[in-house]
Amino acid sequence: YPTEQKNESWSFPKDFWWGVAGAAWQVEGAVKAEGRGPSVWDVLAHRVTNFAYENGTADISDNHYYMYKQDIARIAALGVKAYSFSISWSRIMPFGRGPVNQLAIDHYNDLINTCLEYGVIPMATLYHWDTPLALQDTYGGWLSENIVNDFVEYARVCYAAFGDRVDHWFTVNEPSVFCNQYPLPAMYFKNFTIPNIQQPFYCGHHVLLAHSQAYHLGTSMMSNSTIGWKSNGGYKVPLTNSSEDAEAVQRAWDFTEGWWSDPIYLTGDYNDNVKAFVSDFLPPFSDQQKTAILGSADLYAHDAYTAQFNYAPDGGIAACVANSSNPLYPACANTTFTYSPQDGGWLIGPASDPLASWLYKATEWVPPFLHYIKDTWAKDLPIAVSEFGFAEPFERQKSYLQDILFDPIRSSYYHDYMRAILIALSEGVNVVGCLAWSFVDNFEWASAYGVRFGMQYVNFSDPELPRYYKASFFEYKSAFDIYQEK
Ligand code: GBH
């Protein structure tokens, strides 16, 4: 590599949380251990044929439930400052509500204490998609307003048990992803009579209510807490400079980040595009609900992986309407991740892999993206990149260990992404931390073990599940160390 000149005007602030992230269902395994109740994902993986790649399950996955001490030791050995994990709701409350499972409390207590012993800041997400199956079966999970109280009670148990040592909380991970997962496959889950296209929006409504109440509860129970939620999406670039494509970009913002961020940071209510779409079937938020939603976050946390092009559908809105889809809905804001002549040469990554076609290394868009988040929603609040990461193309997974461990595309992603954060910082965007997804290869939802995001390789064929650092972990470390304020 050519030697780079250090840019003396760049630095990561002293208290910048340079960290890594994971999520309960993707890394823990031990799905039947110590009183855990099932979640919807256990059913999706076990019962729905081909729902997960090669019908993989997360029954064992990384076995992090038992290997967390060594996992924390291995990240601490590289100087990692923060570990963002999620708590499994159906471990804490096997039925989603009612009895609390003390073994699960003991488990997360020990995980948190281990972080603290190693000087790693623990950051907890309450919900990363693993809805307790009992709640889905009883009332349809997030489709029902009943989940609001149950989520808040679950949050109360977690704050009471862990809030003396955990200051950083996220309520929900990426609601536009898990809400768009509704309807769940009808054969295996009760069909809750709400029309399919409306289901994501019922889910979203209850997420905003549950999040906002859990936020206020946490603020009242803990004195030093920082509580947020994790947004997702990516920088949206108009494919051409036509006004139709500009409108498509706006629709795309409105139905991803804006669906949540406009209520939480701007108005307490949906943006006009979402409102117009949902007004036929959803009750409006009451004034009291709006007041609770507005301002219910101490930071703007974004899982910001990539960028995308958006463009109006062929034939424009008229064609969308003719196809009887609502012109406001994102179906009328087409998204492409494909290489485009104006993209400045995004490096082909797993986008060439059918299992991760959404992911390009588009780090040149990170500074404008962070500015957009600041100008549009965060304003004076801190911004965190609460997940970012890259999967090497699928072909490499099947090749030799030395190829897997030397992961140049992921390495260059982390290198360039860290530079992009430095640029944004130097331009006055208050980025307080970044959390790399992920510290180990893990169960990548529908892509199961077919797509690997880890900065550590895990040999899933070896019952000991050994971890091996990949080159990208060291790249991530040096990209931080060089610019860390001493
Ligand atoms: C994160 O989501 C998740 O929080 C984490 O659990 C996951 O492991 C990680 O990303 C890596 O994927 O295939 O075109 O339908 C990132 C946001 C939203 C990106 C859904 C992929 C599917 C796009 N993800 N999206 S597409």
Largest sheet, described in full?
8 strands, parallel, barrel
For the biggest β-sheet, the strand order reads: 1-2-3-4-5-7-10-11
Strand tally is: 13
Indicate the structural class: alpha/beta
Q: Low-confidence parts, pLDDT < 50 over ≥5 residues?
A: 340-344
Which assembly state applies to the chains in this document?
Answer: single chain
CA-CA gap between termini: 26 Å
Mean pLDDT: 92
Helix count, per DSSP? 19
Question: What is the percent of helical residues?
Answer: 40-55%
Shape: globular
- Tell me the radius of gyration: 21 Å
- List cofactors, ions and other ligands: ligand GBH
Indicate the proportion of strand residues: 5-15%
Give an overview in words:
The protein contains 19 helices and 13 strands. By secondary structure, the chain is α/β, with parallel strands linked by helices. An 8-stranded parallel barrel has the order 1-2-3-4-5-7-10-11, surrounded by 6 helices. A 3-stranded mixed sheet has the order 6-8-9. The protein has a two-stranded antiparallel sheet with strand order 12-13. Mean pLDDT is 92; it is low at 340-344.
